[in-house]
Amino acid sequence: MDDRVYLDHASTTFTRPEVLEEMLPYFTKIYGNPSSVHSFGREAKKGLDLARERTARALNADFGEIYFTAGGSESDNWALRGAALANRKKGNHIITTSVEHHAVLRTCEDLQRNGFDVTYLPVDREGLVTPEQVRDAITDRTILISVMMANNEIGTIQPIREIGAIARERGVLFHTDAVQAIGSVPIDVEDMKIDMLSLSAHKFYGPKGVGALYIRKGVKVRQLISGGPQERDHRAGTENLPGIVGLGKAMEIATKDISGHNARLSAMRDRMIRQILATVDYTRLNGHPTKRLPGNINIGFEFTEGESLLLRLDQKGIAASSGSACSSGSVNPSHVLLAIGLPVEIARGSLRMTLGDENTKEEIDYVLDVLPRIVQSLRETSPLFLQERKGVKRI
Q1: What angle do CA 282, 394, 278 make, to 5 degrees?
Q2: Comparing C-alpha atoms, which of 42, 39, 68 is closest to residue 53?
Q3: Tens digits of per-residue pLDDT, 47-98?
Q4: DSSP type of residue 358
Q5: pLDDT 10s digits, 276-297
Q6: Among all residues, which ones are annotated catalytic?
Q7: Mode of pairing for the β-strands spanning 350-354 and 117-121
Q8: Which domains does the chain carry?
Q9: Between the CA atoms of 80, 83, 89 and 94, what dihedral angle is there, to the nearest 10 degrees?
């Protein structure tokens, strides 16, 4: 076993060697601008087209429905803002959930400041929203629904197919943030009735700084960046060709054997969850027990503080997270954990461990040996825990 154990794959993954190998020529040899008509440009455009084909094939989309971006947050921003502004004459109502990524929530807040009404649907204790909630929230002014496919913190997988069917039936655009789902959830944008879908390469062993937005043919979305004709006049600027090539290759690999990938990670995940809950008192699983990403483990540890837990784990060479990576500098408890009804003190003591393809049984054994002892050590310094152990009633 290596000296360090990486259990933060929901934050980012390494770039696969075969992905990097395919990218390298586009830095040094195939460096033409894909918009140029000469041979250097035509050669570069072949790489761009192949990446678009691979991405479209993985989603059961058409070649012309894939638009490359700088990542998942940009794709979310573009989908919501672009669709809302382009369809404003039809209405001003947007539906989303209380557990979305901040790229969706903060864009919705910005749209509210600009005259749009947003409904934030609550979720149950396992992080699920129901299709019936979505149906009941639709009005004659609703123009857009955005529900993430799988939650980045607690791993809960939403009923996207059912929500998509409702949206299509009511003539409302449906966007899903699938950033965490690629490679773990089989996706068919036609079958799921998805109008827009966001993804980011670095979540499935591709490079950082590149993503894509699927936009169904015929959907009106306002241009993201003005300037040149790139991305069919929707996003100006010379394309990040090496990154896009890497995204396409990573997408192809990630969606090739989803069932095999899921079976391996789910077995490790379930073992970790069972053993932690069985050996450590005052714990609870956050998120749905079965409708969850195969590599996601989110446990609430009462009488502990998340930051201290992470630091102790890091000292032992174990990398994990206390919530969304984008919120790691925040002292506020996770909005997702609060939304599923956790008290603030337990939300602050929750730990997210997310597995990846390179994790081994030996690494899991090591974590399962170290983690309970760290939790116990931290609790020994907690006055509330000492009171609980002595049977002192808490006020």
Answers
A1: 10
A2: 68
A3: 999 999 999 999 999 999 999 999 999 999 999 999 999 999 999 999 999 9
A4: T
A5: 999 999 999 999 999 999 999 9
A6: 326
A7: unpaired
A8: 5-12+257-390 (3.90.1150.10), 17-254 (3.40.640.10)
A9: -30
